[in-house]
Amino acid sequence: MNEQEAAAALHEIHNLRRSCTVERHLAALDDLTAMLEQCAATPGSYLWFAGD
Length: 52
Prior knowledge:
Blueprint: H1 3-19, H2 23-40
């Protein structure tokens, strides 16, 4: 995803956090948030996902 898509995904992450109660899932959302923030703040960047 590019920086615009990463910025949009950040809004969705905040909504997901409200409904998440499992600590390891919250930790994964924290990690994803950090990567999305870095991508959103860097014009021309992409965040790639590999796997399922």
